[in-house]
Design brief:
heterodimer; A: 450 residues; mainly alpha; 0% strand; B: 412 residues; alpha+beta; Cytochrome-c3 Hydrogenase, chain B; three-stranded antiparallel sheet; 17 helices; 47% helix
Chain lengths: 450, 412
């Protein structure tokens, strides 16, 4: 009793308040859950069922918002690590295995920093700018098909929606640059505006040829049309369009060699110069979410979306766990033990210096690797969307790697070269691509008819 | 009854009320005082659509603490004004109050990237004052270590050039080479950056085994490595286009402005102090004086490429030094107390950035009466307004970086 008393005395005021609450939650929580399930649930299910569209939308938005954070984290970590290897450095290697938790810690650091508004800044605009930038980036996720059926909203004007929403990010960048009351920010914001608006045109025109070929603007249907062998991918029918899209999308996402709006050797950090804390975090996240989006778009439009490069022979996994009966229980109970021993045995036997417990630990790790692999293999073979997701993510991150690679390699272009390139080369090339595609469609149609 | 005379109240930038009371105009002109010269009144008069951009002294790409006030119209630089003095330590005055041996460590951090050259010039001028004979082995060692440091300075320049244009990688490749060189020099001198190695009458300590083995390893791959690193940039279309035709410096302007070193040679003038006024053992060594730039003078790309040419010539010199180096002592005979006769002596060396010279005046005591230091970066930096005007903001970096100033030497 005295021990309890002493423990209670050691608690701070916050602890004294929180501890009873915790007990209350543990006791009252289950009761509440039961009550809700008993009385509110039927009504709730009816309500949700009546508004399935809204529910689907809310779930999709939540999923997309939740997905954007780890995606950005992975890309940030990738950028740190890949550029480090290309610079002959080691990169982050302290936090987590091989520094893998680095970007999580980055995120926490950004959250904990002081949220600072410079004197003379327009507070409201200054605050709302990163939100616009981040939301426009994340909102484009809604129409991207991650796999068969794995699409937030299958809009029939998906491509149009993408460019419309993506183009709105320039508003955020511009007002971020203007509201900071900093000349570097102003220059960065204006550069971003000029650049994004200029590259929007070749970017949009480069996919018009593809739209003509596909006959639809729904990303889901464009993805579906590229099924089968990889020769069906639109990159082979629209090579020039894919190239223009790649370059213009790089400029849209403010990536090297077109990262003029945050050119650190010229205008310090561009529109983000005065930002700190989580407001900077939003700008920072948006940049990496954009990298993923342009990679995902490249994959969706030109590189076969979620389709594998060649049609796999259909593997039938007709495994219904229910038919195993009690055997299933035995399998789940016995497989870990047996397989751990099986994997541990050779390790123990081959090297006599290995202690038995090390062999067992290694065996258990090996078993886990194999088991996870097997589960994923079965899921891949049995579930369409799983296979699609694997291919989509693999291809997208391959392109993310290309963007990171470009960042490590290229110097930055100059503003006049940037604008000249957009208006003198990309725009005529995009128009040429459009005319050639349209003419080819007409010719082919005429030949088929005649 | 008057109010009690308290301390006068100054408006403080830290006081939030004052900042809130009178809104600061973020885009107002910079100087708080009325113009003092004709140049100031011309510079600080803003035209239509122009604004000032204060770049530095804390800016990622001004190479230390250079501050440049840019007058910009959109992206175009209309006028600019470099502001110096943020790193002023009064080295010349310190030297007047140090005895002759101490001066070597005072001048060391002037050009901190290639500090041996800062030691070399004063040491040579003191030797002239004292009539000291430097042993030939010591001279060879000076040339050898100096040329090593010239290479390290130029590879670092190459990296910073790329960094200022937005390329992340070459700086680290440059630092690998520099690290090798600096480590092998540290094996001889005991320091990695400010070597404090040259002495009046010779050098402090002979070459040792670690230095020679490291040098041998490095020399076997230095040329291929330099070419490989250059390939990353020289064949990059973006890089070449950023540099070509920017900051064109013609012969006459270069000579008129007193430019020396690679910047002068890139403008087409084959003036190298090692050949024009030979010192040390350079007459015995074979090397070319590379020049670049055609009729219209040299641009930033020429200045960049010329330094790569110089790396190859320096490698040639190191090779010859290793083959021709005689045996013998590395310190000459010196009196215990250095009291040179009253007089004056000028000595200059070809540093990686141009002519680094000292003019020593002795009044017969153990300290110099005056030590004037001529630093090449200071002279070369005068070109910035000439070359940048009319270009874009991004070109400011390309030009300034290609002139390769070291602020430690500029501000002294």
């Amino acid at each position: 009793m005295t021990t309890l008393n002493r423990a209670w005395g050691n608690l701070t005021l916050t602890g004294k308040v929180l501890l009873p609450l915790l007990f209350l939650l543990l006791v009252a929580g289950p009761i509440l859950i039961v009550l809700i399930a008993q009385f509110v649930a039927p009504f709730l299910v009816d309500l949700l069922g009546a508004n399935l569209g809204i529910v689907r939308f809310v779930v999709a938005v939540t999923g997309v918002l939740l997905f954007s954070i780890p995606a950005a984290f992975i890309i940030i970590y990738m950028e740190l690590k890949v550029i480090a290897r290309m610079n002959l450095r080691v990169g982050p290697n302290r936090i987590g295995p091989a520094g893998a938790a680095m970007s999580v810690v980055h995120g926490l650091k950004v959250l904990m920093k002081e949220d600072f508004t410079p004197t003379g800044a327009d507070h409201l605009v200054f605050t709302i700018a990163p939100v616009i930038v981040f939301l426009t980036a994340v909102m484009t996720f809604l129409v991207i098909p991650f796999g068969p059926g794995l699409v937030g909203q299958d809009l029939n004007i998906g491509l149009l929606y993408l460019f419309a929403v993506g183009g709105m990010s320039v508003v955020g960048l511009l007002i971020a640059g203007w509201a900071s009351t900093n000349k570097y920010s102003l220059l960065g914001g204006l550069r971003a505006a000029a650049q994004v608006v200029s590259y929007e045109i070749p970017l949009t025109l480069s996919v018009v040829g593809l739209i003509l070929l596909a006959g639809t603007m729904s990303l889901n249907q464009i993805a579906g049309q590229q099924a089968g062998w990889f020769t069906n991918w639109f990159v082979f029918r629209q090579p020039l369009g894919a190239l223009i899209f790649f370059i213009a999308a790089t400029a849209e996402a403010n990536r090297t060699p077109f990262d003029l709006s945050e050119a650190d050797s010229e205008i310090v950090a561009g529109f983000a110069t005065e930002y700190s804390g989580m407001r900077f975090g939003f700008l920072f996240f948006a940049e990496y979410v954009n990298v993923f989006i342009i990679s995902a778009l490249l994959v969706t439009l030109f590189f076969g979306a979620w389709n594998a490069p060649f049609p796999f022979p259909q593997v039938e996994v007709a495994l219904d766990p229910g038919t195993l009966g009690i055997g299933l229980l035995i399998l789940i109970a016995a497989a870990p033990v047996v397989l751990t021993l099986v994997f541990a045995a050779p390790i123990y036997l081959i090297r006599s210096s290995t202690p038995a417990w090390q062999a067992l630990v290694l065996g258990f790790v090996l078993f886990n690797v194999v088991a996870i692999g097997a589960v994923f293999g079965i899921a891949y073979a049995g579930l369409d969307w799983m296979a699609g997701l694997v291919w989509f993510m693999g291809k997208s991150f391959a392109f993310v790697f290309v963007f990171v690679w470009m960042r490590a390699t290229f110097p930055r272009v100059r503003i006049d070269q940037l604008m000249g390139f957009a208006w003198k080369w990309l725009l005529p090339a995009a128009l040429l691509n459009l005319f050639v595609t349209a003419a080819a469609i007409v010719v082919v149609d005429t030949l088929k008819a005649g | 009854m008057t109010a009690p005379a308290g301390p006068r109240q100054h408006p403080s930038a830290d006081d939030p009320r004052i900042m809130l009371d009178d809104q600061i105009g973020a885009f107002e002109t910079i100087p708080p005082y009325p113009p003092r010269t004709e140049r100031e009144s011309e510079f600080f008069a803003l035209g239509d659509g122009e604004m000032f951009l204060n770049m530095g002294p804390h800016h990622p790409s001004t190479h230390g603490v250079l501050r440049v006030v840019l007058k910009i119209n959109g992206e175009q630089v209309v006028d600019l004004d470099p502001v110096l003095g943020y790193l002023h330590r009064g080295v010349e005055k310190l030297c007047e109050n140090s005895d002759y041996h101490h001066i070597i460590s005072q001048v060391d951090p002037l050009e901190y990237v290639s500090s041996l050259f800062c030691e070399w010039a004063p040491v040579m001028s003191f030797e002239k004052l004292l009539d000291v004979q430097v042993p030939r082995r010591a001279e060879y060692i000076r040339v050898l270590t100096g040329e090593l440091l010239r290479i390290s300075s130029h590879v670092l320049f190459q990296g910073f050039m790329a960094l200022d244009l937005g390329g992340l990688t070459p700086i680290l490749y440059g630092f690998i080479e520099r690290d090798e060189i600096v480590e092998m020099l540290a094996a001889v001198t005991g320091q990695r950056m400010l070597f404090n190695y040259f002495r009046i009458g010779g050098v402090n300590g002979d070459l040792n085994h670690e230095f020679m083995s490291r040098l041998g390893d490095w020399m076997s791959r230095a040329l291929t490595q330099a070419e490989a690193n250059a390939g990353l940039l020289n064949e990059n279309e973006i890089f070449v286009r950023r540099m070509r035709g920017i900051g064109r410096l013609d012969r006459e302007t270069a000579l008129r402005m007193g430019v020396t070193g690679p910047n002068l040679r890139a403008a087409g003038v084959a003036y190298d102090l090692r050949r024009a006024h030979p010192y040390s053992v350079y007459p015995e060594l074979e090397f070319d004086v590379p020049t670049r730039g055609g009729e219209g003078g040299g641009d930033s790309l020429d200045r960049y490429l010329l330094r790569l040419d110089e790396i190859k010539q320096s490698l040639r010199i190191i090779d010859q030094c290793l083959h021709q180096m005689p045996d013998g002592p590395v310190m000459g005979k010196l009196p215990r107390l250095l009291r040179p006769r009253p007089g004056r002596a000028w000595a200059a060396v070809e540093a990686p950035r141009g002519l680094f010279g000292t003019y020593a005046v002795s009044d017969g005591t153990h300290q110099p009466f005056r030590l004037k230091i001529h630093d090449p970066s200071f002279v070369n930096l005068q070109l910035v307004p000439l070359l940048v005007k009319g270009n874009l903001i991004a070109d400011t970096m390309a030009v300034m970086s290609s002139l390769d100033p070291i602020m430690g030497g500029v501000d002294k």
